[in-house]
Automatic annotation (TrEMBL):
<feature type="signal peptide">
    <location>
        <begin position="1"/>
        <end position="23"/>
    </location>
</feature>
<keyword id="KW-0732">Signal</keyword>
<feature type="domain" description="Calcineurin-like phosphoesterase">
    <location>
        <begin position="53"/>
        <end position="325"/>
    </location>
</feature>
<dbReference type="InterPro" id="IPR011230">
    <property type="entry name" value="PAP14/16/28/29"/>
</dbReference>
<dbReference type="InterPro" id="IPR029052">
    <property type="entry name" value="Metallo-depent_PP-like"/>
</dbReference>
<dbReference type="Pfam" id="PF00149">
    <property type="entry name" value="Metallophos"/>
</dbReference>
<dbReference type="InterPro" id="IPR004843">
    <property type="entry name" value="Calcineurin-like_PHP"/>
</dbReference>
<protein>
    <recommendedName>
        <fullName>Calcineurin-like phosphoesterase domain-containing protein</fullName>
    </recommendedName>
</protein>
Amino acid sequence: MSKRMSLSYSFPVFLIVVATATAACLAAAGGGAGRGDGFGVGKGLRFSGSSPFRIALFADLHYGENAWDDWGPKQDVKSDRVLSNILDNETPDFVIYLGDVITANNLPIPNASMYWVQAISPTRIRGIPWATLFGNHDDAQFEWPLEWFSIAGIPEVHCPPETSFAGEKDCSFRGTTRIELMKMEILKNPLSHSQIGPTELWPAVSNYILQISSSKDPESPSVFLYFLDSGGGSYPEVISYAQIKWFQEQSQAINPNSEVPELIFWHIPSHAYKKVAPCRKSSIKRPCVGSINMEEVASQEAEWGIMDALLNRSSVKAVFVGHNHGLDWCCPYKKLWLCFARHSGYGGYGTWPRGSRILEMTEDPFSLNSWISMEDGTKHSYVKLCS
């Protein structure tokens, strides 16, 4: 989620470079359960001996915001610092970019991939594998600044001659699609575990499953990670009925007896988050755990049964979302936990200190703990999500 800054700008001619429930947990985590063969399950992740597996969640980075002035690029540099500090402090085994990686509605030509590359670079240069999913701003239509219609006028936009857009009259004021962003990331980054989901689920694109394999057997799953595109931007903010059916079919196929723990990731919170949310601006009291509770939950536009589908599987332990910059709590919801990440980027609204939600899992027996890791190195809001 992003709210445009109310600032006064001067608009010179500029050049933009285009780059292409505390629930009962299972004691066993893996042994002989379905392996995902033939279902496109990514299998490149694995527990290492007796060491826990740690994931850092980066939500709402909003790179590329106000790209035409000095303020925007300065925020991106600060976001680089957040990522670098947390990656160095936490040394995660895996990173998940939890949507709104960029603010596409502030990008007047199709150069979103340049900012996407900037966002993933701190993770890539450290040799850490990652996966991404889309938020409502990642392919949002360009929003014309009102100031551009004043005396200052609309700044001239140039597409550099070395790009494929050079000379095209329509190179400006059109965006970069979800498909284009995901293709670019996957093709150019061997450390990326992102996938373009089944075409029958489009326009929802970031729908896929990753397996964290057992330390004893690379083919034996210990945890499944499900990524769902919650929409927004170029289409409504919703997890469709088709996506729910896909989740039900795939989870039954790869984990038929619910023997393997499952974690769920998408960007925009479901309506269930509203049901468990602490009252706005009130203190966060147990069983909820968190540190900021400064706004109402901004949920998806509709809900077609995704929470029922999750609750029907005892293997689903928690859901993780972003979108609300002023929330970072986890609250139990019936048999599972609903968690926000933490606003990680300096783009987007809000002045709360930036950070990341960390997930740490053990293999045998399976356990899942979480906390918030801040830019300044402090940690807080420890919560046991499964043990």
